[in-house]
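Posting for a labmate who doesn't have an account.
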Amino acid sequence: MDVEKNSFALPSEGATVQSDALPQMTYIEEKPIYSFFKRCFDVIASILGIIVLFIPMLIVLILVKIDCPSASPIYIQDRIGKNGKPFKFYKFRSMVPNAENMLDTLLDKNEIEGPAFKMKDDPRITRFGRIIRCTSIDELPQLWNVLKGDMSLVGPRPPLPREVALYNEYHFQRLAVTPGITCYWQVQPKRNSLSFEKWLELDLQYISKRSFLVDLEILFKTVGAVCGLEGE
């Protein structure tokens, strides 16, 4: 398994974060009862998902290995979770082995403003990788992240350390809850054409409105988005 090494540190206590002309900060309500039952649901759903999808995931793993025999079919990457805590993030490999080293040469082709990187015809994506990204199958190993408690089924997508290093005080609000496999951004039509600020707005909207009904709504919409091949 390939592990990408990244360094990350939240701003130290008392450090000044550039916040000129930032939008109004979002009030983030603590919801202990909701959080408890959401965690119970995540554990049950992730276990069932791993059991039911074990054979399909095994087949995908084999096909990924055939498509890219020189690297591990499971890609492990450092991501940033709730309150800035780093964790190991799992995906089926959809990019060439030296993808991270190639990123610096592609930054000028970034199609989304802000810390995140999105490129429609990213040359780092493998042939089979385009298929599993289009169907979001590459995200299935994150059921293990959900079972471990690093992630939830629903929540803001976990950012990379290099992205968080560029966050301002307003951006850090999206790290106030456990990240998820799917979210409002994931179910938007042509989501990759949205700006980072719109993406952030959707995350903060979820954080503000989060509830069992909202989570179920996003999960059902995710099924529709996957069936409509609206993945990356």
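Reply:
Got it, the structure tokens are right above this. The chain has eight helices and five strands.
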